[in-house]
């Protein structure tokens, strides 16, 4: 194997890792505020991709179609919170986690009814031949993915650490009861977190659709990979989700390229299990998921 | 017990019907109308319904008694699931009391219902590809199938590679049954033909990037690359192939024989060749080809109602027509229909010309496969 191949594996891994990062950020927002793992996050991604595909096929311009996709994601996130999560807020977070799995199946079924099983093509945001970087090929849409991940990360970071509302979000996460006693409307914060996660999932779906196509059932595997990315990064840190996603993408690409492509999908889950075991043994300097 | 009360009522109703209408011939069908196989199952269902309407518009099937019998098609969806396929088969046999079963759509479901249908001694004409469904024929007495087997399709591809002097080839296949069975056939055929396989890569149907596998293939420096999958992964592989700037001839499987593949892959699909049935290029066939008029008529009828033609609907067309032909000679008799199916000779269908025998329940030969190339987003018959 020469350096050209290695460069290509890294380039492919970083782009795919950017996709996982974007999805992982959605898990982090919901978990950070509510201590709920929202397994319907992948369905927000599918929704964003499908809405964008439908709107652009109808001749709607990209900015408007993109906005429509994000709006659909926000609406789905809020709906999920109001219909499935809020009524159970007194229940342990494990019960709510199971409800989100149910919600993801329902959302996927709904998408199947609306869009059918065929995949849809979405034109690249920035058409043209792929870019060549030191012998490695990167598709132009890959730059959009990485750019979107970077922008979303920067905005989240600024929001959580530099704004009053962000501090309130963190307060709700740290101690919901205390926050309520201080006069914060915790329910509204949770709704906002789900809305944000829905919108963010739709952004991810819209940006990756030109690479992955839009399919009703795309959210399942992508959601799981995003979850692994978020867990690698500790599940509460946006920076961790970004690093976790890129690390996962690169490890997958290297495993497929250098070892064998037969076990590519297993890599994510082997990494996850290894990390959990390592944490249990006290070998990991950062915390991998905390107890509710 | 309550059902007994309806009996006199039903008899009364039956008595009021015109005496000329004879009892319908009930045929069952199981297709994967939902689930991962739905892009195959939906055109199969559409084709079956279209034929049912067409036959009944002519009054029905002319049985051996010389009378016309309406064709009643009972279609169930197995949701691409083996267990549901078995339940559907049981229901068709026990409740609907069908004379024969058309389907299923997928190899897995077809193999799953074998035990049930063989034991009940019901003739089945499968629309799924795996050779195992009908081999060995001595043990698969009641089962027939219409799609070409992997060995047939792959054989035509390998001959084509050899004829073009492409002797160092690389393989990338999807990691479920379609890709695995394709690989087994390819490995065997390339060994027999003396070709060298320099890489064998796998990818998942849900993979979003197949660049690492193709990079490995590039490093192995093959003269041609064969990708064995269906869209969307087949389309992603095609686009990755073009993005990486790979220039060697690119071959795909018959799994990309629908317009969706070209839509998804875009201009990257241009130049890709694949072995497939003749339906895709019906209009370009030699006028002496006996299948040509049949293919063009089916493509025209199907496209008028349901959209772009695809070979899967053709498999169902063959299966329904074969059963109807058997009903014409044998009537509503399961064993008779089976014997009639087995003695079918020279039936000009969509997939090919079928010659069934006690040792061959697929009945096709290499004339049923052509090489097709994508040129400017259209299918062209490759010479």
Structure, explained:
- The complex is a heterodimer of chains A (292) and B (383).
- The relative contact order of chain A is 0.22.
- The model of chain A has no long low-confidence stretch (mean pLDDT 90).
- Chain A has 292 residues and is mainly α.
- Chain A has one domain: ABC transporter involved in vitamin B12 uptake, BtuC, CATH 1.10.3470.
- Chain A has helices spanning 3-34, 41-57, 62-85, 93-115, 140-162, 164-174, 176-181, 186-212, 219-232, 238-259, 264-280, and strands spanning 131-133, 136-138.
- In chain A, a hairpin with a 2-residue loop joins strand 1 (131-133) and strand 2 (136-138).
- Chain B is of the alpha/beta class.
- Chain B folds into 2 domains: 14-148 and 295-365, Response regulator (Rossmann fold); 151-276, Response regulator (Rossmann fold, 3-Layer(aba) Sandwich).
- Chain B is 43% helix and 18% strand.
- In chain B, helix 4 (107-120) links the parallel strand 5 (100-103) and strand 6.
- In chain B, helix 2 (38-57) crosses helix 11 and helix 8 packs parallel to helix 9.
- The longest helix of chain B is centred in the first third of the chain and has 20 residues, at 38-57.
- Chain B is elongated, with a radius of gyration of 22 Å.
- Chain A binds chain B through residues 1-2, 5, 8-9, 12-13, 15-16, 19, 112, 116-119, 121, 130, 137, 139, 208, 211-213, 215, 218, 220-222, 253-254, 256-257, 260-262, 264-265, and chain B through 34-36, 38-39, 175, 201-204, 206-209, 211-213, 215-216, 218-219, 231-232, 235-236, 243-245, 260, 263-264, 266.
Keywords for this structure?
heterodimer, A: 292 residues, mainly alpha, ABC transporter involved in vitamin B12 uptake, BtuC, two-stranded antiparallel sheet, globular, B: Rossmann fold, Rossmann fold, 2 domains, 43% helix, elongated
């Amino acid at each position: 194997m020469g350096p050209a191949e290695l460069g290509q594996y890294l380039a492919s891994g970083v782009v795919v890792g950017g996709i996982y990062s974007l999805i992982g950020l959605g898990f982090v927002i919901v978990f950070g505020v509510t201590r709920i793992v929202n397994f319907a996050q992948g369905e927000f991604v599918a929704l964003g991709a499908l809405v964008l595909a439908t709107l652009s096929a109808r001749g709607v311009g990209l900015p408007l179609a993109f906005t429509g996709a994000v709006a659909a994601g926000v609406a789905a996130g809020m709906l999920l919170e109001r219909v499935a999560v809020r009524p159970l807020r007194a229940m342990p977070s494990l019960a709510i986690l199971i409800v989100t799995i149910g919600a993801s199946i329902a959302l996927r079924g709904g998408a199947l009814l609306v869009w059918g099983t065929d995949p849809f093509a979405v034109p690249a945001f920035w058409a043209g031949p792929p870019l060549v970087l030191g012998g490695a090929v990167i598709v132009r849409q890959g730059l959009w993915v990485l750019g979107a991940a970077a922008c979303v990360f920067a905005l989240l970071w600024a929001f959580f650490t530099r704004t009053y509302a962000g501090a309130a979000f963190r307060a709700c996460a740290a101690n919901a009861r205390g926050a309520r006693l201080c006069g914060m409307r915790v329910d509204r914060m949770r709704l906002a977190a789900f809305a944000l996660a829905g919108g963010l999932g739709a952004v991810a779906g819209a940006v990756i659709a030109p690479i992955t196509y839009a399919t009703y059932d795309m959210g399942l595997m992508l959601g799981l990979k995003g979850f692994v990315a978020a867990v690698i990064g500790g599940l509460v840190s946006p920076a961790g989700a970004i690093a976790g996603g890129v690390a996962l993408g690169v490890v997958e690409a290297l495993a497929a390229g250098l070892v064998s492509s037969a076990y590519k999908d297993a890599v994510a889950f082997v990494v996850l299990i290894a990390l959990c075991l390592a944490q249990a043994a006290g070998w990991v300097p950062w915390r991998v998921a905390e107890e509710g | 017990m309550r059902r007994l009360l309806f009996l006199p009522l039903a008899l009364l109703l039956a008595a009021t019907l015109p005496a000329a209408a004879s009892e319908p011939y009930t045929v069952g069908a199981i297709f994967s109308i939902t689930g991962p196989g739905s892009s195959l199952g939906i055109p199969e269902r559409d084709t079956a319904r279209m034929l049912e309407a067409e036959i009944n518009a002519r009054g029905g099937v002319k049985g051996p008694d010389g009378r016309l019998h309406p064709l009643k098609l009972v279609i169930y969806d197995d949701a691409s699931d083996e267990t549901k396929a078995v339940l559907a088969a049981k229901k068709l046999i026990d409740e609907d009391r069908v004379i024969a079963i058309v389907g299923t759509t997928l190899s897995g479901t077809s193999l799953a219902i074998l035990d049930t249908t063989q034991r009940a001694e019901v003739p089945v004409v499968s629309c799924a590809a795996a050779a195992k469904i009908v081999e060995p024929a001595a043990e698969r007495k009641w089962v027939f199938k219409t799609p070409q087997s992997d060995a047939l399709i792959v054989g035509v591809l390998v001959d084509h590679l050899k004829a073009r002097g492409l002797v160092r080839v690389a393989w990338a296949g999807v990691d479920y049954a379609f890709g695995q069975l394709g690989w087994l056939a390819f490995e065997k055929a390339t060994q027999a033909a003396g070709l060298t396989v320099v890489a064998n890569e796998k990818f998942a149907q849900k993979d979003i990037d197949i660049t690492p596998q193709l990079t490995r293939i590039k490093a192995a420096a093959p003269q041609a690359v064969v990708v064995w999958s269906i869209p969307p992964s087949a389309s992603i592989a095609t686009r990755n192939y073009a993005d990486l700037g790979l220039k060697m001839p690119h071959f795909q499987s018959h799994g990309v024989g629908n317009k969706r593949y070209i839509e998804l892959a875009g201009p990257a699909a241009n130049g890709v060749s694949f072995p497939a049935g003749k339906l895709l290029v019906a209009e370009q066939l030699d006028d002496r080809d006996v299948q040509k008029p049949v293919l063009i008529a089916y493509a025209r009828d199907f496209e008028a109602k349901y959209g772009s033609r695809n070979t899967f609907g053709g498999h169902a067309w063959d299966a329904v027509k074969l059963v109807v032909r058997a009903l014409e000679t044998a009537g509503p008799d399961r064993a008779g229909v089976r014997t009639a199916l087995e003695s079918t000779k020279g039936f000009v269908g969509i997939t090919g010309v079928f010659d069934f025998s006690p040792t061959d329940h697929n009945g096709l030969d290499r004339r049923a496969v052509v090489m097709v190339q994508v040129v400017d987003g259209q299918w062209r018959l490759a010479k």
